[in-house]
Amino acid sequence: xxxxxxxxxxxxxxxxxxxxxxxxxxxxxxxxxxxxxxxxxxxxxxxxxxxxxxxxxxxxxxxxxxxxxxxxxxxxxxxxxxxxxxxxxxxxxxxxxxxxxxxxxxxxxxxxxxxxxxxxxxxxxxxxxxxxxxxxxxxxxxxxxxxxxxxxxxxxxxxxxxxxxxxxxxxxxxxxxxxxxxxxxx
Length: 186
Prior knowledge:
Layout: E1 5-11, H1 19-30, E2 35-39, H2 50-55, H3 59-70, E3 73-78, H4 87-97, E4 107-113, H5 121-133, E5 137-138, E6 144-146, H6 162-184
Parallel strand pairs: 1-2, 1-3, 3-4, 4-5, 4-6
Helix pairs in contact: 1-6
């Protein structure tokens, strides 16, 4: 029996009923049997501060970085705040980049959900710039922008839109293909 492909996912939204958190939960259900997704909560990560880092990396940050390092891949789902990525997500990526970057060459995919008609496209653009600097092995296609998210999720957070489910499946398959390509390369 082969080990499951381990994916960690997180979102820049701290909201309990976040559409991006719901999108990650939907992705966990849509994954093929050979993979699993653990959704990480960023709520307890302190704001990045070099003075704090100089005293010692907080335990919660260390655990976050260890989970990133142990994962085969990363799945991010981001809302768009003021045409950009949320500070919670940027903060987590800033912590990840310090003292060894567990995202370097890590297969990474992005999706976004928003109540607007652009589906978080501008946030994804900025997020891609940050991940380029972190040298993540990006899945560039397909792109998943969940526009008008309120119409695609039930009140309980269940993704009900079949087209969006299929888009997420395609993204997950591309992410798993990137993981397998890395495992099979010499």
